[in-house]
Amino acid sequence: MELQPIEPENALELYLADRENNVTAATIYSHRSRLKHLIRWWEKEDITNLNELTGRLLHEYRIWRRNEGDLAKTTEKTQMDTVRVFVKWLESIDAVEENLHRKVLSPTLSGGDNVRDDSIESERMQRILDYLSKYEYASRPHVALLLMWHTMMRVGAVQ
């Protein structure tokens, strides 16, 4: 296989255009947001042709991104998983060596790494619900908070 030269910005736009028919607009937005850091790093490293991409460079990016962004383990995993999908797509258009996506390392999460345990005090929630009941009765925020508070449903489930 002969690699075809491609600039990072062009590759990103082609990738996103290709994905538009298969994923939601929110996914496109998320991938663009996550991959913009990779594009920025490539510019910093003066990488103008993705044919130059190697496993070592991808590892250096991971370390840079972790340190530059002060990332939580779950965020780093999400970012690197997106990079892996992007690199696999780059393979399909002969922009990088085959199986390079296998060299994109991502942290392994343990049971509690992907769990948030933020909570709101009962008295504070009661004040919020009282306000909503008085001034915004049956509004979307009022109904959503009532559902979440009394059923312990997650935000996504309520939506």
How would the blueprint of this fold be written?
Layout: H1 8-19, H2 25-44, H3 55-69, H4 73-92, H5 122-135, H6 140-151, H7 155-158
What does this structure look like?
By secondary structure, the chain is mainly alpha-helical. Helix content is 61%, strand content 0%. It is built from seven helices and no strands. It has helices spanning 8-19, 25-44, 55-69, 73-92, 122-135, 140-151, 155-158. Helix 1 (8-19) runs antiparallel to helix 2 (25-44). The radius of gyration is 21 Å and the shape is elongated. The chain starts with 7 loop residues before the first helix and ends with a helix. The mean pLDDT is 90.
What are the key terms here?
159 residues; mainly alpha; 7 helices; 0% strand; elongated
